[in-house]
Amino acid sequence: MSSISLIQPERDLFSYTPYWAECFGTAPFLPMSREEMDTLGWDSCDIIIVTGDAYVDHPSFGMAIVGRMLEAQGFRVGIIAQPDWTNKDDFMRLGKPNLFFGVTAGNMDSMINRYTADRRMRHDDAYTPDNVGGKRPDRATLVYSQRCKEAYKDVPVILGGIEASLRRIAHYDYWSDTVRRSVLVDSKADMLVYGNGERPMVELAHRLAAGEAIADIQDIRNTALMRKGPLPGWSGVDSTRLDKPGRIDPIPHPYGDDLPCVDEGSPFAPEKQPVAKEVVVQPVRPKPWEKTYVLLPSYEKVKADKIMYAHASRILHHETNPGCARALLQKHGDRYVWINPPAIPLSTEEMDSVFALPYQRVPHPAYNGQKLPAYEMIRFSVNIMRGCYGGCSFCSITEHEGRIIQSRSEDSIIREIEEIRDSVPGFTGIISDLGGPTANMYMLRCQSPKAEQTCRRASCVYPEICQHMDTNHEPTIKLYRRARDLKGIKKILIASGVRYDLAVQDPRYIKELATHHVGGYLKIAPEHTEKGPLSKMMKPGMGSYDRFKELFDTYSKQAGKEQYLIPYFISAHPGTEDEDMVNLALWLKKNRFRLDQVQNFYPSPLANSTTMYYTGKNPLSKVDYKSEDVTIPKGDRQRRLQKALLRYHDPANWPLIRTALEEMGLKHLIGSRRECLVPAATIEEQRAAKRNLRQTRPALTKHTDITRQRDPAKGHQAAETFRKPDNKAKNARAQGGKQEAEHSAKSGKAKGSARKKPSF
């Protein structure tokens, strides 16, 4: 276990004096209507949260955590869930808030929620009653904030949630294929809270309640705002002058620089003084990152220059450690986006208090029992930790929750399991998951307080596990054992993804997992088998996977259970060649995997992989105009091909795969031999292909022959005749002149083939 962390907050989350409205007590549900407010005796709300999700009073939903957290501070909090965004009326249903509107698109980015990785529209929404799609607008954060401003122009609007968090600076937008401005600029909001919002939201609410103007509150960690320049008293450095972003800053000695150690016999040893000199205590030097900001390339520069975009992305990812992160400044037009350093992570005691708030753990009664798929998936699960130090390039958890693991205490988790057992309708004795972003990072933190405070590595486990990282899974094993021994608990399942490169460091965990906590199948995410894409994903090689599988199979057999690993893979990730996908498909076939659900890479804002996708450069290393170029699978055909190779067993994909294999010179992989990937086309398939070709109608344009324009079917037939004339027609055309025309007219076989002047 790690020592006491040097990263400490200035004050505890629950140390504030409660607001006067705490006298109203705790609401059964945060109100969604004026009738509920009247029942509670409220004349107004202090804070109104507008969300793109249906309101579920459960700690897995952001609006519930923030709402209950603010309620515990004494504020009256209302919820406007999935409002009608076509006008401002629905945003006025609870009246004017006394302090501010909190706006979030929901637990998911509204664009990812609405569109697939191939930009096709989805027609469902797991966060909406009865899974109905279309209940939130595209770019919901922008739309909601603008409607709030229309409703009450003088009320501050505070953005939050993952959609706003990942758009806090200029960012590449996959859906419009362009670089967009910070969401702060387009939304006209007063402030943006990125990451987990408990600490900044509580401080903001109390300062506004104390009478501070929103324009004067500019120094809260984990927030971003618009300014005309940097904060007074801060010194800046241009990002392009940083030698190597990611350098670990040295820890300054509290009494000044130490003298070098030398032996007394050394010629460089200082002479002994007959009289001792007076000891002068040096003042504590400020840490090099305090009151310092990094000036990023402007929005205009990163939009015009992909190299500068990749550089800005690299700098941002190296300023995520709350122990040493500097503020960021990025110019947009004649103003600047100022991003304060990340908030200090919650302590275990604070995490326990947040999860002990009076959640009802069910959807709001206004939904009248309608099914919410997102709730059904998590209603019997328990979140035991936050954060992830894996740093996978395609994942945005680090940019949102940070690398430092924030764990709940064992007692807190056990109390929640007992609460589920005793109060949640439909509980059958099975806990569906004990996990979080990763199943097996519970209580695992850096063992070196100095390194934890100053490290700027993007990942603690890639390219290899850091020597300072704790890999002892004993706390997790102890938690599992205590949880499954509870009365009324039949089974504890682990549904969160297991970080297998960590698990193999402690085989006891794999044994515990395989023996007691797998329901036949265990999800695991190697993502790929080839070094090229794995190096861009920052994922371990297949050696760790093979070792994990070996141990998992061994312990499953010892337990007398037949259990299987279900691997997850990504296609079309930056750095993936078509040949890499062929090798992955061959690996899948060799290991007898037939994947049902596969995923093309989805470029989400701020992820390192998205930067690679847009710029063609690798921000994991120093970026310049001569740095490494990254292969980017783009275009519908290539993305469809790479996805099809993951489902090599599907006959619908065979024609596309055969064509690609022939083009790559891998025709030997087509056939019925064991080493072949797909079978050769059958006679019936070949005939069907020819029929489809014959039935294809040619496209008509203004340059098309007049005969075909008037009668496309006839023109098509004539065109076929023209392409395959008989010998008589050939001889007739060879004679030329009038004789050719007369012969063609008599034979009738070249009818319609004569070229005429196009009709415009």
Automatic annotation (TrEMBL):
Top-level taxon: Bacteria
Radical SAM core domain sequence ranges: 374-643
GO molecular function terms attached to this record: 4 iron, 4 sulfur cluster binding; catalytic activity; iron ion binding
Xref: Gene3D superfamilies: tm_1862 like domain
Protein residues bound to [4Fe-4S] cluster: 388, 392, 395
A Pfam entry, by short name: DUF3362
Annotated Basic and acidic residues bias: 702-714
Family: Belongs to the UPF0313 family.
Keyword match Protein biosynthesis: no
Biased composition annotated in UniProt, kind: Basic residues: 746-760
Record text on cofactor binding: Binds 1 [4Fe-4S] cluster. The cluster is coordinated with 3 cysteines and an exchangeable S-adenosyl-L-methionine.
Name this polypeptide is given: YgiQ family radical SAM protein
InterPro entries in the cross-refs: Elp3/MiaA/NifB-like_rSAM (IPR006638), Methylthiotransferase_CS (IPR020612), rSAM (IPR007197), rSAM_horseshoe (IPR023404), rSAM_sf (IPR058240), UPF0313 (IPR022946), UPF0313_C (IPR024560), UPF0313_N (IPR013704)
Alphabetical UniProt keywords: 4Fe-4S, Iron, Iron-sulfur, Metal-binding, S-adenosyl-L-methionine
Alphabetical list of NCBIfam families matching this protein: SAM_YgiQ
UniProt keyword Nucleotide-binding, yes or no: no
Organism (species): Limnobaculum eriocheiris
UniProt region (Disordered), positions on chain: 688-760
Cofactor: [4Fe-4S] cluster
